[in-house]
Specification:
Helix content: 25-40%
Structural class: alpha/beta
Number of domains: 1
Strand content: 15-25%
Distance between the termini: 40 Å
Radius of gyration: 18 Å
CATH architecture: 3-Layer(aba) Sandwich
Strand order of the largest sheet: 5-4-1-8-9-10-11-12-13
Number of helices: 10
């Protein structure tokens, strides 16, 4: 096992990429859209990288008309894409609108099949052993059985070799059934050190609890060390080392214009701070500021904060 202090990357993200089309009005009526790289896992990677973390990304990009722009924009954030393969098929596309800032409006036009090329052989021991934290979410697990096996392989190896494992439950019932989502979650839960469920709806569906304190107790009983319950505009509740603290989202004089993937920006900020040796409570406060910045700025990955943005 490589000593933690000499690992080359803070974060290894295993996930898929989308092309995001963003507008300010009704998705079906708008004539003009802004285009960017999107997807929950890609935003986690981009957020941490823009804040200064060393980030390695395992993914697949289809050789369709968007292939070049996806690679270019990931590289522009400072993400290592040596382990992003080129596949056949096409990349996932979704449309999102900021018409109602307090709501998330998405229209997925088929998730795309590039991520079906993510297979267990893409993850090997030295890759995992060269990162401080390994992160994955249920979004990739929903793509295919091989994708599920890829995440299982990476998280199991990381756990066995005492590398921190972070996981976002990220329930998306338009992509698969609740039973399948639960099966995938429970298959990797024994390996997870940090988990990011959302409350109340997601936590009720997956664990049977709505209150963050109940969710934290339930997951502590399953040996998850750090439980970060995202509560939307209210902020988050963190349970760690027998202590539970609530972190309300701070108010701002500037309006929140777009909440698209704001939770993924939060996770990227949280893991960046953890990789810096900070405790989970300090990480939660920092991650709230990252999420607020993303909500105010809106936009795609180029609008995510750098560390200097958060100092002003």
């Amino acid at each position: 096992m490589k000593p933690m202090q000499i690992r080359d990357y803070d974060l290894l993200v295993i996930g898929e990429c989308y092309v995001e089309f963003r507008c300010d009005g009704d998705i079906c009526l708008c004539d003009s859209f802004e285009k960017d790289v999107g997807g929950a896992d890609a935003v986690v990677a981009a957020t941490a990288a823009r804040l200064g973390s060393g980030v390695s990304f395992v993914s697949a990009i289809a050789r369709d008309p968007f292939h070049g722009i996806i690679r270019e924009r990931l590289l522009a954030q400072g993400i290592n894409i040596d382990h992003v393969v080129t596949s056949g098929g096409y990349n996932g596309i979704y449309f999102t609108s900021s018409r109602f800032p307090e709501q998330r409006e998405y229209l997925f036009h088929r998730p795309g099949n590039a991520a079906e090329s993510i297979i267990p052989s893409m993850v090997y021991d030295d890759l995992v052993d060269n990162c401080k934290i390994v992160y994955a979410s249920s979004e990739l697990q929903s793509v295919s059985r091989p994708a599920r096996h890829t995440i299982f392989k990476a998280l199991e190896f990381a756990h066995r070799n005492k590398t921190m494992v972070a996981y976002d439950t990220n329930l998306r019932l338009q992509r698969w059934s609740l039973d399948d989502a639960k099966e995938a979650l429970w298959s990797v839960l024994p390996f997870v050190d940090v988990i990011f469920p959302s409350a109340p709806d997601e936590s009720k569906a997956l664990f049977g609890y709505e209150r963050p304190t109940d969710v934290i107790g339930f997951l502590w009983d399953r040996n998850v060390q750090i439980v970060v319950v995202k509560t939307g505009a209210e902020g988050c509740v963190v349970g760690y080392n027998g202590k539970i603290e609530e972190f309300p989202q701070v108010t701002s004089s500037e309006p929140v214009s777009n909440v698209t993937l704001i939770g993924s920006a939060f996770i990227g900020g949280f893991l960046h701070y953890i990789a810096r040796g900070q405790d989970p409570f300090a990480a939660a406060e920092f991650a709230n500021s990252v999420a607020l910045f993303k909500g105010i700025r809106g936009g795609g990955i180029n609008s995510l904060p750098t560390i200097n943005d958060l100092k002003t």
